[in-house]
Amino acid sequence: MRYQISGKQIDIGAALQTHVEAELGDVVSKYAQRPTDAHVVFSRSAHEYVCEATVHLSTGLTAQAKAHATEIYAAFDDCCEKMDKQLRRYKRRLKDHHKDRAEPVELYGASSYILAAEEADAEGEPDSLQPIIVAEMETKIPSLSVGEAVMQMELAGAPVLVFRNESKDGLNVVYRREDGNIGWIDP
Q1: Which string of b and e fits 93-122 if b means at least 16 CB within 10 Å?
Q2: Where does the signal peptide begin and end (predicted)?
């Protein structure tokens, strides 16, 4: 597994890097046979250290965890525990999908835009009906089954996931509803 361990405005020492590689490697190897890479970023938020970890699995799924604590090692350990809990919760599904899927998830390129918040004039009407594009980025849309999409959304902790439905070959959306259930849009 490839590791990318970095700090935002923090110097990451060799001892912390070794600790991260050993601990995260142990956690991920329990649940996934072939993880491809892991990105761990440390940063400061006021008096606390923040640790964000993202692990990409060979099946194309991504697991993410984030934690904060007053000590940098404690922040990583909390993050590692959250990752362990996520992967343990989805262990059976990860292994079942891994057996069914012989090849990694196919990804399709798409454009992603960030739009400026609408500013209304004194009457509460927007100045224009055309939104202002603040940024344009490239994003990837995975080709998944509905069950895999729900699992990916849960693993990433995302409120919504756009994916290409493998069985119908069309774009679909799964999202977390306010009542706690999962919604699925299949046009």
Answers
A1: bbeebbeebeeebeeeeeeeeeeeeeeeee
A2: none
